[in-house]
Amino acid sequence: MTGSPPGGRVLVAGAGPVGLTAALVLARGGVPVTVLEAGPGLSAESRASTFHPPTLEMLEDLGVLGPVLEQGLVAGTFQYRDRRTGPVADLDLAVLAQDTRHPYRVQLEQGKLTPLLLRALSRLPGNEVRFGARVSAVRQDAHAVDAVLSDGTTVCGSHLVAADGAHSAVRHSLGIGFEGMTYPERFLVVSVEDDLAAELPGLAPIAYVMDPDEWLVLLRTPDHWRILLPTSGDTTDAAELARLPDRLSALRASAGGRAGPPWRVVQAGLYRVHQRVADTFRRGRVLLCGDAAHVNNPLGGMGMNSGIHDAVLMGTALRAVVTGRPGADEALDRVAAVRRDCALTYVGAQTHRNWERLRVRDPARRSALAAELRATAADPARARQMLLRSSMIASLRTAETVGCAAPATPRQVDRAVAAAGRAAPDWARTAVSDRAAALLSAAATLEAAAETDAPLLARESGKPLTDCRGEIAFSAAVLRWYADAAPGLLADRLIDDAQGRLPRSGAATLVR
User: 327: buried, middle or exposed (CB in 10 Å: 19+, 13-18, 0-12)?
Assistant: First the structure.
């Protein structure tokens, strides 16, 4: 170690939205920070572009909401559409007026938020941001942490907040696992100058377009419309970009539009999508936030938002530790655990369910889903409950309302499906009113058998016993989430499985 950190200074690895938010939270509480950014300046990347209501409240508390609202596009509704028939349901966030100061989303690219955060941080004395300072490893002891930079120099701090992305060098350096799943398709994100609202009648600023063959997402930003398209994982980027004009023309045709000039593409990029969660969000004096701690699919716009929530909540708890508040270290442990639980059981659940909803193939189930969405949109009470979850308000209320369970790995889902199948062998004849109880019974059975099943799983897989207990516990959590939120959805999967129609684990591949 290089010595004691000056003045309780905290290091932050990464100057993206999450890292700069954490730095600003700490600095506003009187804790000096040094931000270490690998790039030569702020990234202009604009992959994330949606800000949910609770995130807007946090940005307001940090003093940067004003320019976000000035530069952004306020979206009071979002929409589900059928690609062939048009609008299905519009959800109005105004029903959340009693739940948040900002009952709307704001569309603004993340690359426009970071300069605002950096400017706010620069106004506070005693802080610094170093560009071209790539953190390659960390060392820590009971008193301090060293960030080892790629040039071999070290920077010392009392703690370190790792917000250095999905390929986090800090996480790798600490040997923290990052298990999860990879979606079978890549996502192609396209920005166009064309006015999609003129092409697609009744289009809302945010639209999730359902289709069994090619679902998509349409997002309005202040400068462009963005289109997200699922794309084969087995083709080259060049081949997919070459056929992009034909895919965009097909979008116009599927909506009944006339042939028109080629779409004016400003930017297009392909990337693979994962759902992964770090084994822990805290290791000694190091905290993981944002993509360094968890990644998920972008459907619902929860990735950057949940990372900002990590930064605010863990940054606030860390501030209390650094300033010597009694009991603060134990409180930081609890906050880190709650944020990990949220990533596992809330963000993953919502985003994965969004993916499943958009790609339903069975015509009867698609019709039932459309009817359910229409009924929800027409009923303010039901709409509020749905929007509390989709807007991420519910994820922040208490640890209990975080809820349970998304398919984190195929194995966990398969175990949950098998347990539910044993609880009610003939799901097609199980009354709807009894399905939730059957799922809860299956969850209790899994948990009761964990002590005997976990050692067997450990011998079969070679994994540590604690990890295997966690595997089984998470499978039980999958069942509890379905019991609470969507017993009919899992019942449909079980019926399909019994009839040989269910692709195991939702066609996802396990990342070991």
Answer: exposed
CB distance 210 to 360 below 8 Å: yes
Q: Give me the helix-helix angle, 410-423 and 465-485, nearest 10°.
A: 60
Produce one character per residue of 190-211: b if its CB has 16 or more CB atoms within 10 Å, e if not: bbbebebeebbeebbbbbbbbb
The predicted-structure confidence for 358-403, as pLDDT tens digits, reads as follows: 888 888 888 999 999 999 999 999 999 999 989 998 888 643 323 3
- Reading the block at residue 105, the tokens are 């989303």
Sheet holding 135-140, edge to edge: 135-140, 145-149, 154-157
Compute the distance between CA of residue 360 and CA of residue 215 in angstroms, rounded to an integer.
Answer: 9
Place of tokens 């994965």: 352
Distance CA 449, CA 462 (A): 19
C-alpha to C-alpha distance for 9 and 320, rounded to whole angstroms: 13
More confident residue, 469 or 51: 51
- Tokens in use for 440? 């809860």
Is 413 a residue whose pLDDT tops 60?
A: no
For residues 46 and 30, give the distance between their C-alpha atoms in angstroms, rounded to a whole number. 31
Q: Tell me 259's DSSP state.
A: P
Percentage helix, strand, coil, to 5, in the chain? 50, 20, 30
Percent of the chain whose pLDDT exceeds 90: 50
Q: CA 419 to CA 440: how far, in whole Å?
A: 10
Residue 433 has pLDDT above 90, yes or no: no
CA 118 centroid distance within chain: 24
pLDDT tens, 241-280? 999 998 988 887 776 555 677 889 888 889 888 889 999 9
* Residue 458 pLDDT grade (very low, low, confident, very high; cuts 50, 70, 90): confident
Measured distance CA(9)–CA(126) in Å, rounded: 9
Distance (Å, whole) CA 66 – CA 72? 10
Q: What is residue 261's predicted lDDT score, i.e. its pLDDT?
A: 78
**CB hemisphere CA count around 325 (13 angstroms):** 14
pTM of this structure: 0.77
Say if residues 1 and 141 touch (Cβ distance below 8 Å): yes
Which residues contact residue 485 at a Cβ distance below 8 angstroms, ignoring those fewer than 6 apart? 349, 403
* Cβ(438)–Cβ(420) below 8 Å: yes
pLDDT at 5 over 70: no
Instruction: Please write down the HEC assignment for all residues of 130-197.
Output: EECCCEEEEEECCCCEEEEECCCCEEEECEEEECCCCCCHHHHHHCCCEEEEEEEEEEEEEEECCCHH
Least confident of 3-12, 319-328, 463-472: 463-472
Alpha carbon distance, N-terminus to C-terminus of the chain:
33
